[in-house]
């Protein structure tokens, strides 16, 4: 018997539902449960008023408290089964990934306002944040992945915020961060990081990113406060990662710096020969090398 129906889903959640998951309830959180599948995918099942993250499936009704870790979960013929309950997921609305504006010249001041609204990063994570901002990708991942407090460690959330911002800049290092983080991040942190490399974030983080990139100062405090409600530390950590990405962006040459003909050049192409090396090749022949250390 159908007990509920899915209403909205993040893009990562929809991929899991579409693929036909089979798994178990892993942990209960405020207003929902996390489910993991036999193939390593994750799904957060919540009620209608919860924030919509990339792995979230919102139901029409409040999530039932009797779902416990270890209960079986599966999807078949458009029906999600959790324990003895069945949920119709055939008409779930999937929100598209929002397009981000170009980064405004005065975005740094807007970002400073956002960061001031949220908690400060712990001292243990500051070296990793500094490495991200300096473009020292491998050192940053070693210092951050799997580290910090929270169901998803704050270090994993920092990397997710960084990667989502860098993806909006059409940078190449999000894929590099993801590969380096695989053996270090927690399984759930890695699932969110994978979404972030596609530009997929919790809705309140995406709205904050858009406001910061567009230097819309009047919106930033409100949106930063909304983001603080995402997990115990995850919301703030996403913003710390975005801040590191913005500082990284400020160190990179603009198209104007590359010469008078650069305005019409194609986007850089990433060439990854192996996990040990990658480089970013521009149409003008310039090359930025990445030397990766997975140890």
Would you kindly provide a written description of the structure presented here, covering whatever features stand out?
With 295 residues, the protein is of the alpha+beta class. It has two domains: 93 residues, no CATH class; 143 residues, no CATH class. 37% of the residues lie in helices and 21% in strands. It contains ten helices and twelve strands. A hairpin with a 2-residue loop joins strand 7 and strand 8. Helix 2 packs antiparallel against helix 10, helix 3 runs parallel beside helix 10 and helix 5 runs parallel beside helix 7. The longest helix is centred in the last third of the chain and has 17 residues. The radius of gyration is 20 Å and the shape is globular. The N and C termini lie far apart (51 Å). 44% of the residues are buried. The C terminus is likely disordered.
């Amino acid at each position: 018997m159908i007990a509920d129906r899915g209403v909205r889903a993040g893009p990562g959640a929809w991929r899991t539902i579409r693929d036909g998951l089979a798994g178990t309830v892993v942990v209960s959180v405020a207003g929902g449960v996390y489910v993991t599948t036999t193939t390593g995918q994750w799904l957060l099942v919540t009620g209608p008023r919860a924030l919509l993250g990339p792995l979230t499936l919102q139901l029409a009704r409040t999530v039932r408290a009797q779902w416990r870790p270890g209960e079986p979960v599966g999807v078949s013929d458009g029906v999600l089964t959790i324990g003895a309950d069945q949920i119709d997921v055939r008409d779930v609305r999937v929100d598209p990934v929002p397009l981000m504006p170009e980064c405004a010249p005065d975005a740094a001041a807007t970002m400073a306002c956002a960061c001031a609204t949220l908690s400060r990063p712990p001292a243990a994570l500051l070296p990793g944040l500094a490495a991200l901002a300096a473009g020292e990708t491998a050192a940053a991942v070693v210092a951050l992945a799997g580290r910090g407090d929270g169901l998803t460690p704050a270090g994993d959330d920092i990397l997710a915020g960084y990667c989502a911002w860098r993806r909006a800049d059409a940078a190449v290092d999000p894929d590099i961060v993801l590969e380096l983080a695989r053996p270090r991040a927690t399984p759930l942190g890695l699932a969110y990081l994978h979404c972030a490399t596609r530009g997929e974030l919790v809705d309140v983080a995406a709205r904050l990113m858009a406001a910061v990139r567009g230097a819309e100062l009047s919106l930033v405090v409100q949106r930063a406060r909304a983001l603080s409600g995402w997990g115990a530390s995850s919301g703030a950590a996403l913003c710390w990662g975005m801040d590191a990405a913005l500082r990284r962006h400020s160190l990179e040459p603009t198209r104007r710096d590359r010469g008078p003909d650069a305005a019409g050049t194609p986007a850089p192409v990433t060439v990854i020969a192996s996990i040990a090396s990658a480089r970013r090749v521009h149409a003008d022949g310039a090359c930025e090398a990445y030397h990766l250390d997975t140890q």
